[in-house]
Design a protein that fits this description.
- The complex is a heterodimer.
- Chain A has one helix and no strands.
- By secondary structure, chain A is an all-alpha fold.
- Chain A starts with a helix and ends in a 7-residue tail after the last helix.
- By secondary structure, chain B is mainly α.
- In chain B, 79% of the residues lie in helices and 0% in strands.
- Chain B has 24 helices and no strands.
- In chain B, helix 3 crosses helix 10 and helix 7 packs antiparallel against helix 17.
- Chain B starts with a helix and ends in a 9-residue tail after the last helix.
- The chains are: A mainly alpha, B mainly alpha.
- At the A-B interface, helix 1 of A face helix 3, helix 10 and helix 14 of B.
Chain lengths: 36, 480
């Protein structure tokens, strides 16, 4: 498998599933910030 | 909100568009547009819904001024145009559910033939009419909650099944070639305007950006409900499902075809390409562990969950169109009846003829670029900085958007829309298609100009009437 395929795979999966994980983390662990 | 966006776009359309546009060459712009098109627009749309609590015509007129109401009408038309053939896809899902419970899927060996026979008959028309009737009935009886409750069971089931088939697919022999196809870009294809247009429109299809659906949904949301986190979660989860489905479909397709005949699949148009999901998924179910009944049950449950996911998206489209008619002064029942009647009539052509289906998918999907541009224009007219501070950054459940958002809406979104549409028309007129002007060709520039042109002209002419009917006034005083 070429470096191009691996890079594209990491970029795509990292962006999509990384973003999803981050947002789920925010939903479950972030508390409302009333002073905002 | 995820229920509105997760539907046929992730399961059926993504694989089809990836196949037509070179796999990895398509995936890169598709991910880029998630960040610079879909997410900023979804945030703008949800905020606009919370600000105005109106369907697109009223929302744009209240945000950007009454002279801009026609842009909202165009957004509503694009989504209605998609509704007309989306119901056909819901019908395909319901038909394949029927095929699963009657054992036809498990007994068949030639799935290409099953799809071609099905798609060329009258069954898709009946299934389309049936799905529109369900959609209208749900809204007429006010049982949207019932559908949502059903989805609370079926959505997790769908996720679980997609995960199972994803794992099974990538463990098939030769499946790795499909994964390589999905993630290996070719630079010559990256220079093709169509790959970029399709990548943007598919991302908008996946996430619901620019459809006006999230705008209408947000109109019913609580004031304090999160805008940014909800918007991002909707976008990421939709793309995550699309990607997993893409891996499952291409692993299966390459494993089954063993690279022979795959050329006709990749880059092709027509019924075989359009029905990619319906040809390869049943073959994957056939390769799951378990006996005939287990495989049939899995297939039935998958197509049932698919149909419900697509149905809940379709219902929100029916709601958008009916609400637009209602805000124009029509009674509720008449508005629902008119929406259903128009959808049965115009969608009927797409159900019976794959060329019309492909034409409508092309015209109104590219229309989503213009819809997104119009939403950004509404925010620009309101004042992006003011919009960001007073409308978006208001929920205690959100992080705050910085000034970079102003530049995305003011510069990046208009630039993407103008460059892509300009690139498309320039290429069409100068080199690609000698009959680019012909409105009766499936993918010509002329068909887009003709259908958009008539709509925009009509909306411009009747703008004053549309806004006065929707808001009760044509005053320049804006919301906020």
């Amino acid at each position: 498998m070429s470096w191009l395929t691996i890079t594209t795979m990491l970029f795509t999966i990292g962006s999509v599933y990384g973003g999803l994980g981050l947002m789920l983390g925010l939903v479950f662990f972030r508390r409302p910030n009333e002073e905002d | 909100m995820m229920g509105v966006a997760i539907g046929a776009g992730n399961i059926w359309r993504f694989s089809r568009v990836v196949a037509q546009n070179g796999g990895g060459s398509f995936i890169i712009p598709w991910v880029i547009f998630l960040f610079i098109w879909s997410i900023p627009l979804i945030i703008a749309e949800i905020a606009m819904g919370k600000l105005t609590r109106k369907a697109p015509i009223g929302a744009l007129a209240k945000t950007a001024g009454p002279r801009i109401g026609w842009m909202g009408a165009f957004i509503a038309l694009v989504t209605t145009g998609i509704l007309f053939y989306y119901s056909v896809v819901v019908g395909w899902g319901l038909s394949y559910f029927f095929y699963s419970i009657t054992g036809q899927i498990s007994h068949t060996t030639n799935y290409h033939s099953l799809w071609l026979t099905y798609s060329k008959g009258y069954f898709p028309l009946l299934a389309h009419i049936f799905s529109i009737c369900i959609g209208c009935f749900v809204i007429y009886r006010g049982v949207v909650n019932g559908i949502e409750k059903t989805n609370k069971f079926l959505m997790p089931a769908l996720f679980l099944m997609i995960l199972i088939i994803g794992i099974r697919a990538i463990t098939l022999p030769n499946a790795w070639n499909g994964i390589q196809f999905l993630f290996t870009p070719r630079f010559e294809e990256l220079m093709n305007y169509r790959v970029w247009i399709e990548a943007l429109t598919q991302n908008a299809w996946d996430t619901g950006a620019g459809w006006g659906l999230l705008l209408v949904y947000a109109g019913y949301a609580k004031r304090k409900e999160s805008i940014i986190v909800n918007g991002c979660l909707t976008a990421f989860s939709n793309n995550a499902i699309s990607l997993l489905m893409g891996m499952a479909i291409f692993s299966t397709a390459f494993a089954i075809e063993q690279n022979q005949g795959i050329e006709s699949l990749i880059g092709g148009d027509g019924a075989t390409n359009t029905g990619l999901t319906f040809i390869y998924l049943p073959q994957l179910f056939h390769r799951l562990p378990g006996n005939f009944f287990v495989q049939s049950a899995f297939s039935a449950l998958f197509f049932l969950a698919f149909s419900f996911a697509a149905l809940s998206s379709m219902i929100s489209m029916v709601q958008l169109t009916a609400q637009t008619f209602q805000e124009l002064g029509m009674g509720r029942n008449k508005a629902i009846g008119l929406t259903g009647g128009l959808a049965i009539l115009f969608g009927g052509f797409s159900a019976l003829n794959m060329a019309i289906f492909d034409n409508q998918d092309w015209v109104w999907s590219v229309g989503l670029i213009v819809s997104g541009l119009f939403i950004a224009f509404g925010v620009i007219r309101y004042g992006v900085n003011r919009y960001r501070k007073e409308v978006i950054n208001t929920s205690p459940y959100d992080f705050k958007l910085g000034k970079f958002y102003n530049y995305i809406i003011k510069i990046l979104i208009p630039a993407q829309a103008i460059v892509l549409i300009g690139w498309y028309f320039y290429q069409s007129i100068t080199s690609l298609d000698p009959e680019w002007w012909n409105p009766f060709r499936v993918y010509s520039a002329g068909t887009i100009l003709f259908q958009w042109g008539i709509a925009i002209l009509a909306f411009l002419l009747f703008n004053r009437w549309l806004v006065r009917k929707t808001l009760g006034t044509f005053s320049e005083k804006r919301n906020g």
